[in-house]
TrEMBL record:
Small GTPase required for proper nuclear import of RNA polymerase II (RNAPII). May act at an RNAP assembly step prior to nuclear import. This is GPN-loop GTPase. Residues 295-320 have a biased composition (Basic and acidic residues). Coiled coil: none annotated. It is an enzyme of class 3 (hydrolase). Transmembrane segments: none annotated. Its main location: cytoplasm. Belongs to the GPN-loop GTPase family. It holds the Pfam family ATP_bind_1. Residues 1-16 have a biased composition (Low complexity).
Amino acid sequence: MDTTPASASASTAASPDGQTGQPTVVVCMGMAGAGKTTFMQRIASHQFGKKETPYIINLDPAVTYSPFQSNIDIRDSVNYKKVMEEYNLGPNGGIMTSLNLFATKVDQVLGLLEKRAAPDPEDPSRKPMKHVLVDTPGQIEAFVWSASGTIFLDSLASSFPTVIAYVVDTPRANSTSTFMSNMLYACSILYKTKLPMIIVFNKTDVQDPSFVKEWMTDFDAFQAALDKEQSNNAFGGQDGVGSGYMGSLINSMSLMLEEFYSHLSVVNVSALEGSGIDDFFEAVKEKADEFRRDYQPELDRRREAREADKKKQREKELDKMMSGMSMGGTASKTAVGDIDVEENDMEPLSPDEDSDDELDDEQDREGLQARYEASMLHQEDSVSADASFAKYLHTQQG
Ligand SMILES: Nc1nc2c(ncn2[C@@H]2O[C@H](COP(=O)(O)OP(=O)(O)OP(=O)(O)O)[C@@H](O)[C@H]2O)c(=O)[nH]1
């Protein structure tokens, strides 16, 4: 599905200071209980403390208590409990269906964001927002692997630099196997979303995070930890068979993940105590630059490819139509000619007149082709005008 909004090119628009002047969207993800909501609250209050009012979006329909006020909250539009009742769904199905229902409003969400990101003519002193913070459901799969999650992420990324903050529960990642599971999960999110990622090791007030850096940069250190766990029979299995298999699997995966690690930013924070938040925003800045440098051209390339495909398709249809017309033209001319001759009592055409007619036919064809192309162009103009108008309406409504 093409979710590229009309404003896609806005992401490269530069402000007078040479910066793009656009807010960066930070999408917080993480397994249930990793501390996403606490982290969201912490980064939001950090921004308020710097007099940089963030724009907050909550996409978790099932959250019962939110310690911060959201500018856009899925719960204002969709009643998760009613969705479960009406569609006879369990919790995960309820979240996915609520997200699907809310995805129909993605244009409105973008309209509101764009309105808020643009200067306000009525209040020229208003500071442009720097960050849009998005909270997502703890059931990551319901968001990342659902159509609606893709629609939200693609739409945001086609309008603003967008980065993923993947929050990890550090105390629960201190064994090689849980660490590896977390990293594989993060890797699959990166692979699916194709967006720059920051891994946020949270709860560092209760777990020293130094092992993280060691395991991610030093293969021997990871190997040593793995051997230690294996010798304690941490992976189970009889006569060491299970542990041997797990050990070598984790070992090969850690080699495979080396490339993944090299593309990540890693920060250690305590959402509860507030440490590491400056480092986090430094990483966001870096990743936003990376988005503009590496991801934006790819997004633009994909959009251009889609447009080239559409153009090719139109040309194909035009060719089909023209060849249909030339066949139909001959057939109908014969038929009409026959009737004309009979009904109007006209003389049959002389060979000379016939060849003149072929020439006229050719000119007609060229003229028709030109008119068709012109009308297609006009249609394109009116489509983009419609899109701009729709966008304008959204911003007016917002
Ligand atoms: N010690 C400590 N506890 C934390 C930290 N961050 C979050 N917690 C605790 O971890 C628990 C889960 O935190 P939440 O913020 O609700 O986690 P979540 O990822 O939003 O959870 P879901 O809403 O279930 O997806 C809570 O008891 C928090 O107080 C931290 O930095 N340090």
